[in-house]
Design goal:
840 residues, alpha/beta, nine-stranded mixed sheet, six-stranded mixed sheet, 21 helices, 47 strands, elongated
Length: 840
């Protein structure tokens, strides 16, 4: 027991002085002496310590990427100090955390390591709150660099409500110079042509740092920032001329730097224009653009496809591909368009011609999955027999390991082999195939042979090709391919050269060889592993141009089998029927428009395809194939239509004379295009670190519909889907948040009944783990101070009892006793009783 104010005991010494003023029998009565002593004790406030045991200690170990190595160096020593200091009656718990918290028992039971790179202290603290025993005093000790990637405000309230004291110990890494891009601030949305301001925040040691601002990879501002007082804030201006989404990036190049990963930062800007039709056409002056504009549509005609990217699709209600081959579109654009259809409700209209559908190389592409017509190779529709030579690069770079479509590790060579096997599977029995493996020489794996009875042997030989090192000698490879074809008696002859765009050597002489091959009726296409910016990209482009074929670039080896399949189908089948063919309509047109059409009686040609299950056909041919000419269906949130005959341009004479062509185009555009966002619905977003927060607002008109079918948010990237649950904030307002993984771009939106509100794109270019935000350390210090914790330099003191809970005052109980004794004294005085002691 202790006394809070022991000086009050001196009052007991003054009690004998009362004998100077009062009779002895009044002052020296035992109860009154006891009352005086009790009063002095109450004023001194005695306290009793009820918490005899030390608190349990929960140790949160930051294993995020930025301090993983430093933590490994010090953790064993720190843990030994804690174990030595642990009192016998206190428990010691350990939880390692990065993006997820995991204790030792969990890791041992399932064998899984920590996932992700970021330091999510909020999540780790919530795990402690969930698992601790509420009636046992506890402390939390955070071992970290202090840079949490998520805010601590919300969890801090819960921590203090539960009475946890949060201590922390910082890992002080070696002092190093680090300059970082801390902020790239853009307006949420702008209008095309509007001048807007953006700001950059650079932080680091004082000095000058070169910077560059990029828009969609192209520089728009360059200069040198002068850091003073540890930071520099720059205000810049820019404008965009077209609706869509634009990826801005800031890059810095400091002379000395500790963390390279925070030298770049990206953000997306959205330019308004939700009603645009994006027309991709091989025709510079496509009459289709004029026809749509005359109907009141906002049309952007694109015939230079090099600048297309996922942002081009954001502001488009509808994308039209008018006789555009797949190989001229940028790498990955087909997959981006497919995602826009399914995730954001963008419509797609593919219009036929000699460079569209199967003849345009869309078989096996990402876009083929959403078309309502299939383009597979059927025996009765093949061209005359084809002789095909595959030249496969087996240089050293092909031994590198990547993940295949199912996530299993394979070599690039194995994926190229899979592409060759798919080619052999698609060719007919009367077709011929030769396969060469090329490095510094061209090695014949399969000599020119027809596939009748030989297909399984071809599969076995091709599947056994391995990388042998060196580079690919291009001239020798092409010459060996021509030798295989010179004696081949087939209707058409073609070479597919597969090569590394960074490692295609010894090409001298190809400029003379390829025209000779063309003169002999041989064509050459190229599948290049890499990008159009790689070292030998221009060489491979020139080979395809001189060879009269196509060029495909991909930096994703997983796409190789699909590219081989596309090129094989393009070469080996009659994908475009050039005959004038009669037509026959169906009642399915009523699903498109209530207005009847005077249908085109015959088409000048069409792309051969087959109606998919669950798709609808409004117009078919009446020839032996009965092929769909107008087919349509719903794909997730978007609508897709295939018009397999030419509407404008080459070979479309009959169509141009069609009196109802304008009504037909207006109807299919209206049906396919994404509807406008209805009034009364809106979504807003903002990001802190890697956490992206959404606020969804709706007017009173939507309260009834949304009470029966709540809104649903879904975001998608190439790798994953995110579908967080809403929290109702107030009437007409929902909120939710997600963590963005770095390096992925997400699009999506909110489904509200049958309506859809698009959102995105959203991206985190650099992991928030590498952005040294001083505010994060200040938040941790504030939480620790408010909860009764401290910066713990001496880890042996981590088991100190919690502040404010060590002892309890006995004053209330003594006041009760004082009252009882006072009543007893009054009773004795009233009855004039004397104790035996007093009589004596």
């Amino acid at each position: 027991m202790t006394l809070a104010h022991p000086t009050w005991l001196l009052i007991a010494l003054l009690y004998p002085a009362l004998l100077l003023f009062l009779p002895r029998h009044v002052v020296l009565r035992p109860l009154r002496i006891l009352l005086a002593l009790l009063l002095a004790l109450i004023l001194a406030e005695p306290q009793i310590r009820l918490q005899d045991r030390a608190p349990d200690l929960w140790v949160l170990v930051d294993r995020s990427l930025s301090n993983r190595e430093e933590m490994d160096e010090v953790f064993a020593r720190w843990w030994a100090l804690l174990e030595d200091a642990r009192p016998q009656d206190a428990a010691l718990h350990r939880i390692d955390y990065a993006e997820e918290p995991r204790d030792e028992l969990a890791r041992q039971s399932d064998g899984q390591a920590l996932t992700g790179y970021e330091s999510r202290l909020d999540t780790a603290l919530r795990q402690v709150l969930l698992r601790r025993e509420t009636d046992t005093p506890a402390r939390v000790l955070v071992l970290s660099d202090g840079y949490s990637t998520e805010p601590l405000k919300e969890v801090g309230t819960a921590v203090m409500r539960e009475g946890l004291a949060v201590d922390y110990r910082l890992i002080e890494a070696e002092e190093a110079t680090d300059v970082q891009v801390s902020e790239l601030a853009l307006p949420g949305e702008v209008r095309p042509g509007q001048l807007f301001r953006l700001s950059l925040l650079l932080e680091g040691p004082d000095g000058e740092v070169p910077y560059r601002l990029l828009r969609d990879g192209q520089p728009v501002h360059e200069g040198t920032a002068k850091l003073s007082g540890g930071s520099a804030r720059l205000a810049l201006a820019d404008r965009v001329e077209r609706a869509g989404a634009y990826r801005y990036a800031v890059e810095i190049e400091p002379e000395t730097d500790a963390i390279e990963a925070n030298n770049r930062r990206e953000a997306w800007l959205r330019a308004q224009g939700n009603g645009r039709i994006l027309l991709l056409s091989k025709y510079r002056n496509d009459p289709l653009a004029d026809l749509l504009a005359a109907a009141g549509a906002e049309v952007e005609l694109v015939h230079d496809f090099s600048n297309l990217h996922e942002g081009s699709l954001i502001a488009s209600r509808l994308v039209i591909l008018n006789d555009v081959p797949a190989h001229v579109l940028p790498i990955g654009f087909n997959a981006q368009l497919t995602a826009a259809i399914r995730e954001q409700g963008t419509g797609l209209l593919m219009v036929g011609g000699p460079n569209s559908f199967g003849s345009g190389g869309y078989f096996g592409s990402a876009l083929a999955e959403v078309l309502p017509v299939s383009m597979e190779l059927r025996q009765e529709h093949r061209r005359l027999a084809t002789a095909l030579v595959l030249v496969l690069d087996r240089s050293g770079s092909m031994s590198m390991t990547v993940d295949d479509a199912s996530g299993q590790p394979v070599t690039k060579m194995q994926l190229a082999n899979a592409g060759a096997v798919s080619t052999a599977a698609l060719l007919g029995n009367r077709d011929g195939l030769a396969v060469l493996a090329a490095d510094t020489e061209a090695h014949v794996i399969v000599p020119m042979t027809t596939l009748t009875g030989n297909r399984e042997e071809v599969f076995r030989r091709v599947g056994g090709i391995t990388s042998m090192g060196g580079g690919i000698y291009v001239f020798k490879s092409l010459l060996a391919a021509w030798e295989q074809l010179q004696e081949a008696q087939f209707g058409q002859r073609h070479v597919i050269l597969f090569s590394d765009a960074n490692d295609s050597e010894a090409a001298e002489g190809y400029e003379k060889l390829l025209p000779e091959m063309r003169a002999d009726g041989v064509t050459v296409s190229v599948i290049a592993l890499g990008t159009p910016e790689d070292v030998h990209a221009e060489l491979l482009k020139h080979i395809a141009e001189l060879g009269g074929g196509r060029i495909f670039f991909t930096d994703q080896a997983q796409e190789l089998p699909a590219l081989f399949s596309q090129e094989t189908v393009t070469i080996a089948r009659s994908a475009f029927v050039q005959d004038v063919t009669p037509t026959e309509p169906t009642l399915a047109w009523s699903q498109i428009s209530s207005a009847p059409l005077e249908w085109l009686p015959e088409v000048p040609g069409y792309n051969l395809g087959y109606l998919r299950d669950n798709a609808n056909g409004a117009l078919f041919t009446t020839d032996a194939y009965q092929a769909p000419l107008v087919a349509f269906w719903q794909q997730a949130r978007g609508r897709v239509m295939a018009v397999t005959f030419p509407v404008v341009g080459d070979g479309a004479l009959q169509t141009e004379l069609w009196g109802d062509r304008g009504a037909f185009l207006r109807s299919i555009v209206d049906w396919t295009a994404r509807p406008d966002v209805p009034a009364g619905l809106a979504i807003e977003s903002h990001r802190e670190g890697s956490r992206l927060t959404f606020d969804f607002y709706y007017s009173d008109d939507w309260i009834g519909p949304l009470s029966t079918t709540p809104p649903a948010l879904e975001l998608s990237s190439e790798a994953r889907k995110l579908a967080p649950a809403w929290e109702r904030m107030e009437p007409g307002h929902f909120r939710t948040s997600v963590h963005l993984p770095p390096g992925e771009t997400f699009t999506g939106g909110v489904s509200a009944g049958s309506n859809f509100v698009p959102a995105g794109p959203f991206a985190l270019s650099t992991s928030a783990e590498f952005v040294r935000n001083p505010q994060a350390r200040r938040e941790l210090a504030a939480l620790s101070n408010a909860s009764g914790g401290t910066l713990r330099q001496n880890l042996a003191d981590s088991f100190q009892p919690l502040p404010g809970k060590r002892s309890y005052s006995l004053r209330p109980y003594l006041l009760g006793l004082l009252l009882l004794l006072a009543l007893a004294d009054a009773a004795l005085t009233r009855l004039q009783l004397r104790t035996l002691w007093w009589r004596r």
